[in-house]
Design a protein that fits this description.
globular, two-stranded antiparallel sheet, alpha/beta, 304 residues, 27% helix, 10-stranded mixed beta sheet
Length: 304
């Protein structure tokens, strides 16, 4: 990555980890030119004392929100738009690429679930590493797969929420609520980004379980944001799904689908009527177009 007028906090307050615990300073950790190591979640972390010149057009750093205008809002000295956060360090952990839901449109899930590929978390080593930073850490479990496919996720979260903070990207099906919620401190579970895979939930008869889990989390005081992927196939049933979930007081929003469907490239192929049905704007599609481009760059770099 070349130098930019925009100085990012990556490496100073923010890192991204692979499933093996290796931590890097940038969300594009699969690109050779930006793979600067910050250590390992099991063996020790070394965050840097300087800011990072950023040239990305989209990222998930905690202090900023990017748009397709290439940093129009973020090109300013670091700290002016910093949020008041309860933690000092934030690590996104791509803990697994395996998922048991096998959504056809998902880059990671469109294949059979392979349980042996999911590694348990070394909880004592993880806690030792985070505690050695002498700072409160926010560990966000995310990735192409389902974090709750990890066999000892509840044990890990119980230990983490004693002194640190957690969050999730999850389809909310692998959580055993009767074990998970009593084991953790819900006040240190900052949020769950819940993926609403509408047709897959219906196909696997999991709509009631999904709704029960959302309600249990919210009753425990956990913020749950629900987002469905606006695949072209789901558009004819949008009203029906909204009505079904509304019966239980559950609302969700749509994110654009990025990919090819029936020979057309999305999100560019959405018609005005389709965007309106999903509640999407042109700006929503533009941000996901940037994300799609970055994913392709990472995939090409990894393959090469």
């Amino acid at each position: 990555m070349g130098h930019s007028d925009f100085q990012c906090s990556a490496g100073k307050t923010f890192g991204v980890a692979r499933s093996d615990g290796e931590v890097f300073l940038c969300t594009n950790f699969m690109r050779a030119e930006s793979s600067i190591s910050l250590g390992n979640l099991y063996r020790g972390l070394q965050f840097r004392d300087r800011l990072h010149g950023c040239t990305e057009s989209f990222c998930i750093c905690p202090q900023y929100r990017f748009d397709a205008k290439l940093h129009r809002k973020a090109r300013r000295p670091w700290g002016l738009t910093a949020l008041q956060l309860p933690y000092d360090l934030w690590v996104h952990w791509y803990v697994t690429d395996e998922c048991f839901l096998s959504c056809r449109y998902c880059e990671a899930g469109n294949r059979p679930f392979v349980k042996r590929n999911v590694q348990a978390i070394d909880v004592p080593a993880l806690i030792r590493t985070l505690d050695e930073t002498r700072k409160p850490v926010h560990l966000s479990f995310t990735g192409g797969g389902e974090p709750f496919a990890v066999p000892n996720m509840t044990d890990a979260c119980a230990a983490l929420t004693r002194d640190h903070y957690i969050s999730f990207n999850s389809n909310l099906l692998g959580i055993k609520m009767e074990e998970f919620l009593p084991a953790i401190d819900p006040s240190r579970l900052l949020y769950i980004q819940g993926s609403v895979h509408l047709q897959e939930l219906e196909r696997t008869n999991n709509v009631p379980r999904f709704i029960r889990n959302v309600k249990a989390l919210r009753e425990a005081g956990v913020r749950v944001n629900l987002i469905a992927v606006g695949t072209p196939a789901v558009i004819p049933d949008v009203s029906r799904f909204r009505e079904r979930f509304a019966e239980d007081g559950i609302e969700f929003t749509f994110a654009p689908f990025s990919g090819v469907y029936e020979g057309r490239q999305y999100p560019d192929a959405y018609t005005v009527a389709e965007r309106e049905a999903l509640g999407l704007t042109q700006a929503d599609a533009a941000v996901h177009r940037v994300q799609q481009r970055n994913r392709l760059l990472r995939a090409r770099t990894s393959a090469g």
